[in-house]
Design goal:
Elements lengths: L3 H20 L3 H13 L14 H24 L3
């Protein structure tokens, strides 16, 4: 696998998003951090989507769902 930098960047953006969402309650920035983390695919980038194991696809889809949830929290909670 040729992606050690991607793994570190992915984990760093996930941790930053968790910090922004849980500690700072800045859900829009958390959504942005989680979304940028998706750009750094931590798995084999040469492997096609359909050839990936289901657990890898599940992790990436869960991350995308987390982006949507944080975006929804950001819009919904600041709609005062």
């Amino acid at each position: 696998m040729k992606t050690p930098l991607n793994k570190f960047a992915y984990i760093a953006f996930l941790l930053l998003g968790i910090y922004q969402g849980v500690v700072r309650h800045d859900y829009m920035q958390a959504a942005a951090s989680f979304g940028i983390g998706l750009a750094f695919d931590p798995f084999n980038i040469d492997q096609k989507w359909n050839e990936r194991p289901k657990w890898q696809r599940a992790i990436l889809i869960a991350n995308l769902a987390l982006v949507g949830a944080m975006f929804g929290f950001g819009i919904g909670l600041h709609d005062r």
